[in-house]
Design a protein that fits this description.
It is a single chain. By secondary structure, the chain is mainly α. It has 17 helices and no strands. It has helices spanning about 5-15, 20-30, 35-65, 65-75, 80-110, 115-125, 125-145, 150-175, 180-190, 200-215, 220-225, 235-265, 275-285, 290-325, 330-350, 365-400, 410-435. The radius of gyration is 21 Å and the shape is globular. The termini are far apart. Tryptophan (TRP) binds next to helix 1, helix 2, helix 10 and helix 14.
C-alpha cells in the first residue's frame, strides 16, 4: 500500500506523464489544427478524463485486486473490461518502446549539430533503431522484474520537478525566438477555419479523445491496479484533479516549447511523430549551453517514458503470472519478448517495411490507431457502463466519499457525466468517424 495519497499521485502521475505529453501532444496538435485540437482536448479532459480516472481508481480501491479480478468483484462476468486493458497495454507498449528507443538515441547525439533531416535519415536505417528499442524495453523489463516500481516512484518524485523546471526554461527560450508568436497564436487562438466539414470535425474530435485517454493512461486497467494499492482514507477526487492538472500542465508547456520553435525555424508543423526530434536539436543548437542542456533534457524525457512503460508492462505481467503461475521474472521476459517482436515490425515500418501497409496504414500507425481510437475508447466506455449502471452511482459515491466521511460535492455531476454524457460522446465520436472512414 502507498503510505499516503502523495505516493499514489506520484505513481499515477508517473504513469500519465510520459511520451504522450512531450512527444505526442505537440505533434497531434500540429496535425489536428492547433488551437481547435487544444479546445476539444480540454473539453474532453473535463467530460471524459476526470470522471473515468475517478471511476477506475475507485473500482481499484474498492476491490483491492488486479484489473481483471477487480472488475469481476464489482460484478461477476465483467472481468473482460480488465482483459481489454491487457490487450490494449500490449498494443500501446509495442509502439511506445520504439519511441523510447528514439529518445535514448537522442541522449547521445542531440548535443551535436543536428538538422531536421537527421531524424528521417536515422529512422530509415533498419538496425540501429531496433537496438535502441531493445535497450529501452530491456530497461523497463528489468525494473518490472526487480519489483522496484516503488523505488521508481521515489526517483520520479525528484525527476518530475526537474523535468518541469527544464521544460519551463526551454519553453521560455522558445517563446523568445523570432516569429515565435505565430506558433503561440496557432496553439492558443481558436481558429475554426481548420474545420471545413463534419469529416474534419469527427477526425479532430476522435484524435483529441484518443489523446485524453492516452495521456491520462485511461481505459487500460492501469489506474484500477494503482487504485487497488490506495488506503481507504485518501481523497480520491482531490487526487484525480491533481493528476489531471499536472498531466495537462506538462502537455501545454510541451506545446508552448515545440510549436513556437517549429514556426520560428520554418519547420513543418504537420510533420507527425518526428516533430520533437526534428525541432529540439535545432532549438538546442542555438541555445547557450545547448550542448549540455540537450542530453540532460533527453535523459529526463527518458525517465518520464520509463515510468509510463513500466505501468503498461506491469498490467500485463501481473495478469500473466497469476494466470500461468510462472514466476514474475519468467512472465516479464515472455511478455517483453512478445512485445519486442511487434516493436521490431513497427520500427521497420519506417524503413524496410515502409511499403507494406495493413488496412492502408504502416504498422506503427496501425498500432497507434488500434490503441488510441479503438481499444482505449471501448475500454473507457465499458468503465462508464460498469460504474454508472452495473455497480451504480450510489456504491461508487460511497467509495469516493470514503463511506460518507468526505463530502463528494460533485456526485450529481459525476452521475450525469458517467451515465450519459461520457458514453454518448464516446459512441457518437466513434460512429461518426467510422462512417467517415
Ligand atoms: N500516459 C502515458 C503517456 O502519456 C502512456 C501510458 C502509460 C498509457 N500507461 C498507459 C496509455 C495506459 C494508456 C493506458 O506517455
Amino acid at each position: 500500500q502507498w503510505s499516503s495519497g502523495i505516493g499514489f499521485v506520484m505513481a499515477a502521475a508517473g504513469s500519465a506523464i510520459g511520451l504522450g505529453n512531450i512527444w505526442k501532444f505537440p505533434y497531434m496538435t500540429g496535425t489536428n489544427g492547433g488551437s481547435v485540437f487544444l479546445v476539444m482536448y480540454i473539453i474532453f479532459l473535463v467530460l471524459l478524463g476526470i470522471p473515468i480516472l475517478l471511476s477506475e481508481t475507485s473500482i481499484g480501491r474498492y476491490a483491492g485486486l488486479n484489473a481483471v479480478d477487480s472488475c469481476n468483484k464489482i460484478k461477476k462476468g465483467w472481468g473482460f473490461v480488465g482483459g481489454i486493458g491487457i490487450i490494449g497495454s500490449f498494443v500501446i507498449l509495442s509502439a511506445y518502446n520504439v519511441v523510447g528507443g528514439w529518445v535514448i538515441k537522442y541522449i547521445f547525439v542531440s548535443g551535436d549539430d543536428l538538422n531536421a533531416e537527421y531524424f528521417n535519415r536515422y529512422i530509415s536505417e533498419p538496425v540501429q533503431p531496433i537496438i535502441w528499442t531493445f535497450i529501452f524495453s530491456a530497461i523497463s523489463t528489468i525494473i518490472v522484474i526487480g519489483g522496484v516500481s516503488k523505488g521508481i516512484e521515489k526517483v520520479s518524485s525528484v525527476l518530475l520537478p526537474l523535468l518541469f523546471i527544464f521544460l519551463t526554461i526551454i519553453m521560455i527560450y522558445s517563446l523568445t525566438l523570432p516569429n515565435a508568436i505565430e506558433g503561440v497564436k496557432y496553439f492558443l487562438i481558436p481558429d475554426f477555419s481548420h474545420i471545413k466539414s463534419i469529416g474534419d470535425f469527427a477526425r479532430i474530435a476522435l484524435n483529441a479523445m484518443g489523446q485524453v485517454f492516452f495521456s491520462l493512461s485511461l481505459g487500460m486497467g492501469t489506474l484500477i491496479t494503482y487504485g487497488s494499492y490506495l488506503k481507504k482514507d485518501t481523497n480520491m477526487f482531490k487526487n484525480t484533479v491533481t493528476i489531471v492538472t499536472l498531466d495537462t500542465l506538462i502537455a501545454i508547456i510541451s506545446g508552448l516549447l515545440i510549436i513556437p520553435a517549429v514556426f520560428s525555424f520554418g519547420l513543418e508543423i504537420t510533420s507527425g511523430p518526428g516533430l520533437i526530434f526534428e525541432t529540439l536539436p535545432v532549438v538546442f543548437s542555438r541555445m547557450k549551453f545547448g550542448n549540455i542542456i540537450a542530453p540532460v533534457f533527453f535523459i529526463l524525457i527518458f525517465f518520464a517514458a520509463v515510468t509510463s512503460s513500466i505501468s503498461l508492462l506491469e498490467v500485463m505481467v501481473s495478469w500473466f503470472s497469476s494466470k500461468t503461475n510462472l514466476s514474475r521474472t519468467v512472465s516479464a521476459i515472455i511478455c517483453s519478448i512478445a512485445v519486442f517482436a511487434v516493436s521490431t515490425l513497427a520500427s521497420m515500418s519506417f524503413n524496410v517495411l515502409s511499403g507494406s501497409a495493413i488496412g492502408g496504414m504502416p504498422i506503427f500507425d496501425l498500432l497507434n490507431f488500434i490503441s488510441d481510437k479503438i481499444i482505449m475508447p471501448i475500454g473507457g466506455l465499458f468503465i462508464c457502463i460498469l460504474v454508472g449502471y452495473v455497480w451504480g452511482i450510489k456504491s461508487a459515491s460511497r467509495e469516493i466519499s470514503n463511506e460518507g466521511t468526505l463530502k463528494f460535492r460533485f456526485e450529481k455531476i459525476f452521475n450525469i457525466t458517467i451515465r450519459y454524457i461520457a458514453p454518448a460522446l464516446i459512441i457518437i465520436i466513434f460512429i461518426t468517424s467510422l462512417i467517415n472512414m
